[in-house]
Structures are given as C-alpha cells and as structure tokens.
Amino acid sequence: MLFATAGQARIFLVTVALGALLGLAHDGVRLLMALFKAKAVRYGLEGLFFCGAALAAFGAVYRCNGGDLQAYTVLGMGVGWCLYLLSLSKALEWICLRLGRRLGKLAQSRALRTLFR
C-alpha cells in the first residue's frame, strides 16, 4: 500500500502550483478585461481563460498522473488558487492600482499632451 501513495505528494504539490498559476493568469485576464467596456468581449475573454485553464489542468494531470483524475488533484488546484488569492493577489492588485494612477496622471500631464500634439 505504501507504493500506491508514493507519488501522490508530488502530484498534489504540482496541482497546488498549477492552481496558483491559474489564479495569477486569471488576474491578468481581469486586467485585460478592464480595458474593454463591451460585455461580449469580456465574456469572450473569460470563456477563453476557462478553456485554457481546463486544457492546462488536463495537461498537468495527464503529464503527472497519467490522466487519472483524483480528488486530491482537484483539491490541490483549489488550494493553490486560494493560497494565491490570500497572498499575492492583493499585493499585485495594489501595485497595479498604483501604477494605473501614476500612468493616468502622466497621460494627463501638460508636458505629455504638448509633446503628442
């Protein structure tokens, strides 16, 4: 029985890392969606993200576990996503908000407007 569980910890950690990467990618898609006002474009981007996330999850499970989907692999992706949301997501959101404000002030500066006339 020990040999049946030997690789499960590694697979679980790989799926945790994949969940965190998917959380980071989703924040990137959210930033991209903020540029568009049309709901159809936003829904399309969200749909493309989830199709890509499903392919990434399938590829990771196939590569690490031979395509055998177990409950701990799905749980690992969820744990990774939650860890990302609780740790790095807020920090990156804060950085992007500050950067956006600075870029907005720069875009409205008088020197930049006269430069691009």
Features:
single chain; 117 residues; mainly alpha; 2 domains; 81% helix
Report on this structure.
- By secondary structure, the protein is mostly helical.
- The protein folds into 2 domains: 7-86, no CATH class; 88-117.
- The protein has 5 helices and no strands.
- It has helices at 8-33, 39-65, 71-86, 88-107, 110-115.
SSE layout:
Elements: H1 8-33, H2 39-65, H3 71-86, H4 88-107, H5 110-115
Helix pairs in contact: 1-2, 1-3
Major sheet characteristics: none
Strand proportion, as a percent range, falls in: under 5%
**What proportion of the residues is helical, as a percent range?**
over 70%
Continuous helix count: 5
Low-confidence stretches at least 5 residues in length (pLDDT < 50)? none
Shape: elongated
* Pattern of helices and strands: HHHHH
Oligomer designation: single chain
Span between termini? 74 Å
Radius of gyration: 20 Å
Count of structural domains: 2
- Average of per-residue pLDDT values: 85
Summarize the structure.
The chain is 81% helix and 0% strand.
